[in-house]
Amino acid sequence: MGQLPLTLLLLTLVGYVAGAVAGLLCLRAERAANICAFGLAALAALTGVVASVTGLLAGAAHAHQSIEILPALIPYVRFSIRLDPLGLFFTLIVSLVGLAISIYSLGYARGYYGRKNVGVLGAFFNAVLLAVTLVFLADNAFFFLIVWEIMALATYFLVSFEHEKEESRNAGVLYFVMSHIGTGCLILGFLLLFQTAGGYGFESFHAIGAKMAAGPRDAAFLLFLVGFGVKAGIVPLHIWLPVAHPAAPSNVSALMSGVLIKTGIYGLTRVAFDFMGPPPNWWGVTILTIGTVSAVLGVLYALMEHDLKRLLAYHSIENIGIILMGLGAALMFLHSGHPLLASLALLAGLYHTINHAVFKALLFLGAGAVVHATHTRNMEEMGGLVKRMPRTAFFFLVGAVAISALPPLNGFVSEWLTYQSLLQGFGTTSSLVRLMFPLAGAMLALTGALAAACFVKAFGITFLAQPRSDHAAQAHEAPATMLAGQVVLTVACVLLGLFPTQFLKLLDPVTVQLAGQALSSQLSMANGLVLSGAVATGGTVSTLGLSLIALCLLPVPLALWFVFSRATSVRRGPTWDCGLQGLTPRMEYTATGFSKPIRMIFKALFRPRREVQREYDFSPYFAKNLRFESTVEEVFQTRIYRPLNWLVWRVSRRMRALQAGSLQAYLIYIFVTLILLLIFAL
Amino acid sequence: MSLLTLLLAVPAAAGLGCLLLRARRAMAAANVLAFGFTLALGVVLLRRVAADGAVTEWAGFLRADALSAWMVLLISTVSLATSLYAGRYFQRDLAAGSVTHWRMCEFFVLTPLFGSGMFLVVLANSLGVMWAAVEATALSSVLLVALYNRRTSLEGAWKYVMLGSLGLALALLGTVFIYAAACKDSPRQLPSFNWSDLMTVAPQLDPRLVRLAFVFALIGYGTKAGLAPMHTWLPDAHSEAPSPTSAMLSGVSLKIALYALLRFHILTTACLGTAFSRHLLLGFGLLSLFLAAPFILVQENLKRMLAYSSLEHIGLICVGIGLGTPITIFGALMHMGYHALTKPVLFFAAGNIHQTCHTLEFRLIGPGLVKVLPVTVLLMGIAAVAATGLPPFGLFFSELTIISGGIAAGQVAISVFVLVALIACFCGMLRQLTRILPGEPKPGLVHDGRATDGVPAMGLLLGTLLVFSLWIPRPLLDVMHQAAGIIGGGP
Amino acid sequence: MSPDPTATISQTVLLLALSPLITGVIKNWKAKLQNRRGPRAWQPYLDLWKFFRKDMVISEHASWVFSFAPYVVFITALLAGLMVPMVTVQAPLSLFGGVLALVGLLALGRFFLALGGLDPASAFGGMGSSREMTIAAIAEPALMLAVFTVAIAAGSTDLSRIVTATLGPGWSLLNPMHVLAFAALFVVLLAETGRIPVDNPATHLELTMIHEAMLLEYSGRYLALMEWGASIKQLVLMTLLVNVFFPFGLATGAPAELYLSALAYLAKLFAVAGIVVVVETTNAKLRLFRVPDLLSAAFVLAGLALLSTFLFQ
Amino acid sequence: MNAPVPSEIPAQLIALFAALMLVVQLLLVVQRMLLTSIRLFAIQSVFLAGIAAVVAYSNSAFHVYVVVVLTLIGKVAFLPWLLSRQVQRMKIVQEIEPLMNFPTSMLVCGGLTLLGYLVARPFTSLERLGNNTLAVAITLVLTGFFLMINRRKAITQVLALLTVENGVMLAAVALTTYGMPLVVELGIFFDVLVAVMILGILVYRIRETFASMDIGKLSQLKG
Fold it and tell me: Cβ of A145 and B230 within 8 Å?
C-alpha cells in the first residue's frame, strides 16, 4: 500500500481542480454548477480522508520522498509535495471538515439561486480546499508561499462574496491586508532560513535552526510567529477574524474557522518543531503566554457578542489559544529535555486542533442554518427554534457541549490531555517558570467555564424559550443536505470523544516525527477503554466508561419514578408570570442581560458604555418606552489599530502635498537633486 | 532588407502611410499589422541573438544584443496590444464626440512613429543617436498626451514636455561628457561613439568625467523613466493621455528611458569598476518605491493611481538592478517584462471605465462596476491581482526573486524595506479597487452592452502573462540570462 | 483496577441515602443556632417523597431540554460521586476519571441546569442561569488551582492516588500548602453549593436567588431529581474536601476497617457541615458583584498554596 | 601625440565668446521684455556659432562648419523668428513678476556660477581650446535651469530651455576636438527644432484654451 495514499491524494487534488473548473463552466446553469462543484468537492474530500488515514496508518514509511506534481518551469521553484505525517494529519482535518461542509453547501447554495452566482462560489470554495490541502503538503518554500497566497486570495473572494454589502467588502479588505502582512513576514522568515540552508526545499530546512546564529534564528521565529499568528488569529493579531468570519457565507465561515485558521497552527508546528531545531526556553514561554491570553480574551469577547456568528468567531480565537497552550508547553518540554511530555503536550494541541475543527465547523453550520431560517444574525431576534428546527438544535447542542469541554465529548478529551501535560510540566523544571503551568491550567479552567457560560447563552437564547421575532416564529427546519453535513460532524464529535485511544494511534507518526516519541500505547489502558496521562500514575479518564456507567445509572431515577409516582399526571401550563397577563417575548432574559454580570466583573477590560433613554409621563418607573444601548470596547481595535490607521492616513495626506501641481516646484525638485548629486559626485 | 532595418522601417512606414489613408479601420489595421510584423521580427531576432550573440547592421550603427532583443519584444507586444485596443476605443470616442477625426488620425500616425522611435533607442549603437531617439519618442508622445485638448490634458502635456526635454538636455550633457572622455585618448581622428566600442575602451576612460557623465545621465534619463523625485510629470501625463497612449507610456516608454540609463550604468561600472552607479540606482529606486505607496493609498483618480503603481514598479526594477547580483538583475528583467504585460491591461480597463462612467474619480465612479462592465472588471481584476504581485502571476516570482536575491546578497535591510513598500502598495491598490469594482452600482449606471471592448487586447496580454508566468521558454531564458550578464558587467 | 460492581452499587446507595441527610442536618443546626426549632434533620427525605408523589406542571414554552435537564443533573452528580473515595481509599470509578473528570461532570450538570432555567421563557430562570454560570466561571480557576496544588503534590489527578499520597508519610496537618488549599477549596465549596455568603438556599426573593431561580418552573419528580442532585453534589464536594485534606481512617482494603472508616467519615462530614452552618449564620449574603472579590481571594489563596509548594520543596 | 597646439588667438577668442555667452545669460535672467529676451538668446547663439567657427578653423575640421551653419540658421534665425511671432500674436510684451526678485536671482546665479567652476575644475586639463569653457557651459546649463524655475511665462521657459541647450552644445564644442559625429549633431539639431515647434503648438493651444500663457494657471493636476 506504499503508493496508495499518494495516488489517492493526487486524485483529491484533481477532484478539487475539477470542481473549480466545473463551477466556472456551469456559470449559467446554477443548479448544475451547485451539484458539480460541491459534489466533486465532497468526493474529493472523501478521497482525501481515506488517503490521509491510510497514509497515517502506514506511518513514516514514505515520509521522506518528495514528489513533483508539476515540472519546474521557473528557475528554483519546484512544485513538489511530501506526504509526511504532520501534513497528512492536517490533510485529514481539511478533508474531514471539507467533506461535511461540501455536503452542507449542496443545500446551502440553493439559497443563492437567482441572487448570486453559485458557480463562482463553488469554484472559489474548491480553490480554497485545493490551496489549503497543498499548503499542508507543500515541500518547497516557494511553492508553499504560492499556495498560501492563492489560499488567501480565494478566501478574500469568498469573504466578500456577498459584495453588495458594504460590510462584506470591508471585511474582505481587512482580511486580505492582515493576511498579506502576515505573508510578508513569512517570506522574510523563509528567506532567513534560506540564507543558511541554501535551498528552498523543506528537507533542506529540517532542523536548520541548529545551524543558524542566535540572532537570525530568533528573528525568523518571531517573523513566523507573526506570519502564522495572523492567519491563526492570535491576540493581538486577531482583529480580522471576528470581522471576516461573520461576513462570509456560513459554509465559508465554517471552512475558515474550521480549517483555514488551522493553516497557521500547521505552519507554527512545522516551523517550531521541524525546522527550528532545539528551541530556547523563551519560545515556549512566549507561545504558552500568547495561547493563554488569546484563550481568555477570546472567550471574554465572545461572551459580549449577541451576533451569533461573531460569537463563534471569537471562540475560534479562544480555541486557537488552547491549541497554542499545548504547543507552547511542548516546546518548553523539548527545551528541558522531556521528549515524552513534549509528545504529550503536542498531542494535546494537535488533538484539540482536529476537535476544534470538527465542532466549530459543526457550530457554524448550525448557525448557518439558523441564519438561513431567521434572516438575522442577531440572537436577540431568535429564540424558540428548538421546536421549529429540532434537528439543527440538537446538533448545535452537541457542538456546544463539545466546545465547552464537557464530558463525554471530544473537547473534554483534548483539554484533559492539555491539563495532564501542564500538570506534569510542573516537575520538569525547578525555575520559577514552572509556576506558569498551573497558572495556565487555571486560566484554561476559567476559559472552559466561561465558554460553558457563553454557550448556555448561545444555545439558550437562540433555541430555547419563546421566539423573539416573527422571522424566528416562522423559522423552518433546514433541508436534508444541510442536516446531513451536520450529521457527519456530530458523529465525528461523538467518536472523537468516546474513542480517543483508537484515534491517537493515527497521531503516533506525527509525534515520532516531531518529538521522537510514540505515545498511543502508553496513553491507552484497559485495552483502549481508558485514556491515561503519559505516566500511568498521572491520572486516567474514560469518556466511554463514564457514558456506559451513566447509562447504567439511568435506571435509578426511572426506578424512583416507577416506584413513587406512577399515578401522577403531567400538565402543560403557562410559565409563572407574577400575575401579569401572560409573558411576552419581550420579558425574556436577553443575551445582553445574560452576559451582564461578566461585563460588570471585567469592567476594566470591556469599558462598557450604556445609554438609557426613557420617556415617561409622570414617573420614571412607568416608562412609556425605553431605549437601552450597551456597547463594549474592543481594546486592541481602539487602542492599537485605529490610531495606527489614522497615522498612516495622516502621513500619506501630508506627503500628497509634494505633488502640488506647480511646474516650478517640480523643476525645483530636479534642480536640487542635480545639485546635490553634483556635490556628491565631486 | 535586413532585420533591424525592418524593425525600424515598418512602423515608420505604417505611420507615414496613415497620413494617406484616413479611414479609421484602415489606419487601425495598418498599425496592428505593423506591430504584429515587428513582433514576429522580434521573435526572429530573439532566436538569432540567443543563437549567436549580438546582431549588428550598417557597419555597427545598429546593434542588437540580448538586452535590446528583450526590449524589442516588450515594445512590439505592448504596441500590438495597444493598436488592437485603439480601434474600438476611438470608435467610441468618435461616437461620444470627445475627439475629432483629425485628432484620431494624429493618434494613428504618431503611435507607430513613437514605436519606431523606441525601436531606434534600443537598436542604436551610438549613444548620441540613442539620445536623439529618446528625445524623438518624447516628442512624438507629447502630442498624444495632449490629444483630448482638455485643459488638464494640455497641462499634463506641458509638464511632460518641459520636464522631459529639460531632463533630456541634461542627459545630452551626460552623453557629451562620455564622448569627451572617449576623445581624450584619440585626438587625431573622430573617436567612435558606439556603445560597443566604448565598452572595449571603458577602463581607459577618465573616471571623473564618467562619474559626472553618469550623474547627468541619471538625472536626465531618470526624469524620462519617472524615477522619484523626477517622476512628477508621470501621473499627470499618464492620467491625461488617452488610455492606449497611457498604456504605451507606462508599459514600455518608461522602460525605454531606463534602458538608456542602463547603457550608461554598464559603461560607468565597466569604467570605474566601483559600485558608484549601482548605489545611485539603488537609492533612486528605493526612493521611488517609498514614494509610491502613500500616493496610491490616498489617490482619488484611477489612472493616476495606476501611474503611481508604475512608479513603484520602476523603482523596484531599479532596486533589482542596483542590488547588482545576477539573481536580482534577472529578477529585475523578469519584472520589466511582466509589468509590461500587466500594466497596459489595467490602463485599457481604465479606458473602458472612463468611456462608460465619463470620469476617473473613484468617488464619482462609485461601487458596483462589476455589474456594469463584468468582462472588463474581470480582466481588470486579474490584471490587478497580477500587478499587486500575487501568484500565480509572474510579478510574484520576480518580486520574490529580487527580494530573495537581496537577502542572499546580505542586504537584509533593503529587502525588508522593499517588502514593506510592496505590501503598502498592495494595501493601497486593494482598498482603492475595492471602492469601485465590487458592490451595488449607482442607480445611474446600467449594464453596458458594449462592455466587451478591448477584450482581444487584454486577453492577448493576460494570456501571454499567464503562459510566461508558468513557463519561460528556453531561448527566452537564455536571452534574459545574457541580458542579465550584460547588465551585471559580464561578457 | 476495573470498577467492581459491589463497591459501585454500595457507594451509589450511600450517596443517594446520605445526601438529603446532610442537607437536612445543616438546615436543622442552622435553625438551632438561630434559636429556631427548625425542620427535622430527615425532612428532606419527606420532601423528596412528596415531590415524587405530586403532579407536574410544565411550562408550555418548555422543550425537551427542560425535561432532559433533571436527569443529567442527577446522574452527573452521582457519577461525580462515584469518583470520590468516601469510606475506602479506592473510589469505585477512579479508573474512569479523576478530579478533572469530576469537575467536568459537575460542569455538565450545571450546563443543563442553566439551560433548564432558560427554557421556560421566564425572566427569573434566565437571571438564575446567568448568575449561576457567572459564579461558576469565576469559581472555576480557584477550584482548579487548588486541585492542581494537591494533584501536583501527589503527582496525579486520580483522587484515590491523591488520597493515598496525603495518607502517606509526607503529609503534615500544618503544611501551609494544605492549609491554604483547604481554605480556597472551602470558599469554592460555598460558592458551588449555593451557600451564604454567595447564594441563599432558603430564599425565594427574586433579586437574591440564584439556584432556586433556575428551579422555579420545576415541579413534581423533576424538582425532586433537581433537589436530590443538588444535595448529592453538595455531599460530593464536602467529601472531596474532607477526604483529600483529612484522610484519616479511610479503609485501605480490609472489610473490617469499613465500620471504623465509615464512622470517621461521618464525623468529618458533620464537622464540615458544622463549619458551613457557622459561616452561614455568622455572615450575610454578599451582593452579587461582591462575590468575585471573595472568589478571587480564594484564587489568591490557592495561588499562595501553589507558591508554597514551590518554596518548601 | 601631437595635438595641434592651440595658438593664443583662438584660445582667447573662445574664452571671450564664452564669457560673453555667460554675460548674455545673466542679462536674460534680469530681462523682462519678452522680445528682448528672445533677441538676447539669438545673440547668445551667435556667440556659440562663433566659438564653433573658431574651433572649426583652428582644427581645420570642416564638418564643424556644418554645426556653425546649423546654429546660425536654426538658433539665430529660425527659432527667434518663430518665438517672436508667437509673442506678437499674443500681444504681451513683458514677463510678469518672477518668483524671485532680480537681486536674489543674481545672487543665485552667482552661486551657480561658482558651482559650475567647482564642477569643471578637475577637467580644465581636458579642454582642447580656451580655458574654463566647460565651466561656462555648466554654468549656462545651471542658470538656464534656474531661469526656467524662475519664470512663469511659457515662452520664457522655452527660451530658458534653449539656453540650457546652448550650454550643452558649448560643452560639446569645448570638450571634444572636433565636435560630435555629424549624425549626432544633425539629430540633436533637428530634435531641438522639432521640440521648439511642438512647444510652439502647445503654447498656442494653451493660449487658446486658457487665454493666457501664465503656466501658473497650469496647476489643476494635483496629488
Answer: no
